[in-house]
Amino acid sequence: MPDPSVARAGFPVSRQVLADHVYEALLEWLMDGRLEPGAAVSIDGMARELDVSPTPVREALARLEHTGMVRRVALKGYRVAPVFTREDFAELMEARLSIEPVNARLACSRMTPDGLEALKKAVEDLKTAPRGGTFAEYRSYLEADERFHQLIAAQANNQFLLAAYNTLGGQIQRFRLFGGVGITDAEQAIAEHQAVLEAMLSGDPERAAEMMVDHVEKVRGRAMADAPED
Amino acid sequence: MPDPSVARAGFPVSRQVLADHVYEALLEWLMDGRLEPGAAVSIDGMARELDVSPTPVREALARLEHTGMVRRVALKGYRVAPVFTREDFAELMEARLSIEPVNARLACSRMTPDGLEALKKAVEDLKTAPRGGTFAEYRSYLEADERFHQLIAAQANNQFLLAAYNTLGGQIQRFRLFGGVGITDAEQAIAEHQAVLEAMLSGDPERAAEMMVDHVEKVRGRAMADAPED
DNA sequence: ACGCCCGCGTTCCTATAGGATTTGTGGCAT
DNA sequence: ATGCCACAAATCCTATAGGAACGCGGGCGT
Fold it and tell me: pLDDT tens digit string along A93-128?
């Protein structure tokens, strides 16, 4: 997290306002589990917590609403979105299967050298990331996972598909955290990511799409098997 | 200082807050063309215009940002998103081709009787809508067009795909208004919509998807031919 | 004339105040 | 004990004030 107050050599990097910081903080807390699903997110309370006035908090929450991670009820306030049900998860995977293979196909055709390097690094990070039992230990693993998919969406070079993926991406990441399952499938998941990457490297868009379908379907299969709860 | 409880006497329980009304008003203005692409949207100015304080306006704009219809630059304010370039349009159509056929396929499988009736009515409204030269005259046509696609997305019965479509839908509607082309293709477009509807009626998901692909591709083709500007 | 500087208005941004609404609690009647 | 109402605290929501930055136009020096 770069500190915006420290500008580089006279270059005032795109200055951020307080609401942006609040947005980032809330997003991080949501992803960290510090804000549990279903919990109320009081505007005044958050303002006290972050030592700012309620105004920027209100703006940040308004922006967060569209991510689906918080829900608003008029005159009642915001709450963290409830835990995914089995149906929610099935819908999310269905949506991924509609969008991500397309992203993979396009990204394969339009991939830049830099993008390819970043993708390689993401897979490498997946392999080397610690995979302990606590959240802090596999946080970097989840981050690399999300980064891999995000990079492909970005390399598809379509602002609308990227926006569509990003709205899903937050939910996917949130599920990775709260879905109930830890990391029990790292080896297989890494192999699937590797397969997508190799298809990219060989410049075969159709195969890249197929490998992505395969990956998402297997993620769905594993999660559905691991978490039979409701 | 208008008293809401008196002013809204006709609305028994207006469980909406001021920011919601501002949001609706701004959305309508954006869709009406009263706010032209590229124009600055001053928070204070809008507050004066709508006779409210800047606070609700700020919140409404924060929510509008994710629709892509307004863009924000920190410490500089909001501007109406610029006109679509040819490239933007191509990307939008590419995104539609990724999502809408999937929606059509799923909607065909999961369609409710009520949904089917609403879909029939949308096509009927398309046929009977006036198609004059001015905006007011073909507004209802565009509304029915958008409603048709929105209904299919809703009937797909997947909250994430619906959200993904909705972010596109606003842009699509905005392009219909500002794309530069009026309605020169109504007969063909209606026939294509009819074809999708008939596939739905016959309960053939694959054909519904194919017809949707066909429709979007032809929309793209006509628009690219009609608006060779840039 | 041309460029520079400075004041002025506009706008964004945040904090604060106060009214309106909801929620939780305790007491009272049934 | 249970249901209902009043009261209090917390919260949401809107308005307003003022600081900071940006844009602009006029005046001054070269």
Answer: 999 999 999 999 999 999 999 999 999 999 999 999
First-residue to last-residue Cα distance in chain A: 36
Residue that is last in its domain, among A30, A52, A80: A80
Last residue of a domain, one of A80, A100, A123: A80
> Which residue in B has a C-alpha nearest to residue A171's C-alpha?
B160
CATH number at residue A90: 1.20.120.530
In the prediction, which pLDDT does B2 show? 37
Longest Cα–Cα distance in chain A: 56
- Domain of B198 in residue numbering reads as 86-226
- Alpha-carbon distance A20 to nearest alpha carbon in chain B (angstroms): 9
Q: Which nucleotides of strand D are protein-proximal, with an atom < 7 A from a CB?
A: 10-17, 21-23
Residues A156 and A76 in one domain: no
Question: B88 with B193: CB under 8 angstroms?
Answer: no
**For residue range A123-169, what is the model confidence (pLDDT) as tens digits?**
999 999 988 767 677 888 999 999 999 999 999 999 999 999 999 99
Average pLDDT, chain B: 89
Examine the domain organization and report whether A135 and A200 are in the same domain: yes
Q: What is the DSSP string of A73-137?
A: ETTTEEEEPPPPPHHHHHHHHHHHHHHHHHHHHHHHHH--HHHHHHHHHHHHHHHHS---SSHHH
